[in-house]
Write a structure and sequence with these properties.
The protein is of the alpha/beta class. 34% of the residues lie in helices and 23% in strands. The strands form two sheets. The chain has a five-stranded parallel β-sheet, with helices on both faces. A two-stranded antiparallel ribbon has the order 4-5. Helix 1 links the parallel strand 1 (10-14) and strand 2 (34-39).
């Protein structure tokens, strides 16, 4: 897999765990992505959608809220996304067909999932 697989792509990272967000950022930047965020809340993620990213990676559980309103908005706007989560069982039927990277996710699996949706 090319080290610049995501060159020129803007990727929104929605993750509330600082260390995991830092790791995701490093992995995606190394693959050439321009990172939006990372953001840790629904409000911040929705605010970050202008201009639209090329793709997004969403953790399901964001403190006391879930990322499903973000997933709904991304789907409505036609932005591809993946879930990178430890709580895949909570994903509603409307989004179960989306790629899921189960935490702890390897860099390779993350990059492959994003490449597949782009």
């Amino acid at each position: 897999m090319s080290s610049k697989l995501l060159a020129g792509r803007r990727v929104l990272i929605v993750e509330d765990n600082f260390l995991l967000a830092l790791g995701l950022t490093g992995t995606l930047e190394a693959a050439g992505a321009e990172i939006i965020g990372p953001v840790a809340s629904v409000r911040d993620a929705l605010d970050a959608l202008d201009p639209l990213p090329d793709a997004a990676t969403l953790d399901v559980q964001l403190g006391e809220e879930t990322s499903f309103p973000i997933a709904d908005e991304l789907a409505r706007r036609g932005v591809p996304f993946i879930f990178a989560t430890g709580t895949a069982c909570a994903i509603p039927a409307a989004h179960r067909e989306r790629p899921i990277c189960h935490k702890p996710v390897s860099d390779h699996a993350l990059l492959e999932a994003l490449a597949d949706v782009l």
